[in-house]
Amino acid sequence: MSGTAVTIGAYDGVHLGHRALLRELSELAAAEGLSTVVVTFDRHPAGVVRPESAPPQLTDLEQKLELLAACGIDRTLVIAFDRERADESAEDFVKEVLVRTLGARLVVVGEDFHFGHGRKGNVALLTKLGRDYGFEVIGARLTGDGTGAVSSTRIRTLVAAGDVVGAAKLLGRPHEVRGIVVHGDGRGGPVLGFPTANMMIDDAIALPADGIYAGYFTRADGSVHPAAISVGRRPTFYEPGTASVLVEAYLLHFEGDLYGELSRVSFVCRLRDEREFESVDALIAQMHQDVAEAERVLSAER
Q1: What are the tens digits of pLDDT across the range 43-94?
Q2: Which of 114, 140, 166 is the last residue of a domain?
Q3: Which of 98, 212, 268, 283 gives a 20 to 30 Å CA spacing to 160?
Q4: The 75-79 sheet, strands edge to edge
Q5: 248 is catalytic
Q6: Is the pLDDT of residue 214 over 70?
Q7: Is residue 204 one of the residues assigned to a domain?
Q8: CATH number for the domain including 90?
């Protein structure tokens, strides 16, 4: 092929808005005989530029690459985003990455795209540089759903509120987190009668609001199991502010050892808020109800 068709961005979540832009990129590239490339970063740029207010991520790098590949993109170029990259001018980024590295002939980005030091680069500057270096630039309109633009920021807000159904509508799939199954407090099976898989989730990943959810647990071998999932701080056992957030999944109709497995949990719907119970027996009674409700919801969904 004689060149590349490129898009650039964090692509956190690879949501429906991203996918619409990627379809446009692929269609234009096919018409011109170009290969498609996504340029993205190994971390969210805000984590370097303003770490104190960097947003939680909807996907880790591995999941993002899987989702991009599933969109039919030929290649993804992952750029290490560090302080030096943050200080790089928009012009230097274009010369190094788009021109010298990728031989870009077409660049498709969202109409609100910004890049380079101080976010001084935009579609207008990119278009000017395209004339100098021989590539065309298209600023694609943002995809909306009748309420607003589909964006990673909007999805993070929904996830943080526990609205995993609303988030899934914009993602095009349930929100998912990944992590290693580790030992927890040891009370799930012996005390409560509900042995759970305790997930070690990267602190940078967006978790739903504390509460109980119905969803699915995917094991390392690819098998998928319906699950009741708790996200929270176990207020029946811990004083406020003394426990960190834990993601625990109770796999329905499952027995086995999951420790050490790299697994995935996806959230289908929220069942209730997390709350403190007056006794362990009251908590156990509620857990029985939660598991029955999770099974009912997931059976209806299937």
Answers
A1: 888 888 888 888 999 999 999 999 999 999 999 999 999 999 989 999 999 9
A2: 140
A3: 283
A4: 75-79, 35-41, 4-8, 104-110, 136-140
A5: yes
A6: yes
A7: yes
A8: 3.40.50.620
Rounded Cα gap, residues 226 and 236, in angstroms:
25
- pLDDT on residue 1: 45
Verify that 59 and 112 share a domain, yes or no: yes
User: Is 159 part of any domain?
Assistant: no
Report the CATH number that the domain containing residue 195 is assigned in CATH: 2.40.30.30
Output the average pLDDT for the chain.
Answer: 91
Q: In terms of residue numbers, what domain contains 37?
A: 4-140
- What phi, psi does 214 have (nearest 5°)? -100, 140
**Phi, psi (rounded to 5 degrees) for 275:** -150, 165
277/233 same-domain check: yes
Tokens linked to 274? 């997390």
- Considering 98, 122, 140, which residue would you say is the last residue of a domain? 140
CA–centroid distance for 257 within its chain? 27
- The torsion defined by the Cα of 270, 191, 193 and 271, in degrees rounded to 10, comes to -10
Q: Are 93 and 86 in contact (CB under 8 A)?
A: no
Which residue among the candidates 24, 248, 261, 276 is catalytic per the annotation?
Answer: 248
Q: Does the pLDDT at position 13 exceed 70?
A: yes
Place of tokens 């500057």: 125
Q: Does residue 239 register a pLDDT over 90?
A: no
**Tens-digit pLDDT profile for residues 105-130:** 999 999 989 888 888 889 999 999 99
List all residues 6 or more positions away from 92 whose beta carbon is below 8 Å from its beta carbon.
Answer: 116
Domain identity same for 113 and 189: no
Q: What is the 3-state secondary structure (H, E, C) of 60-93?
A: CHHHHHHHHHHCCCCEEEEECCCHHHHCCCHHHH
pTM: 0.91
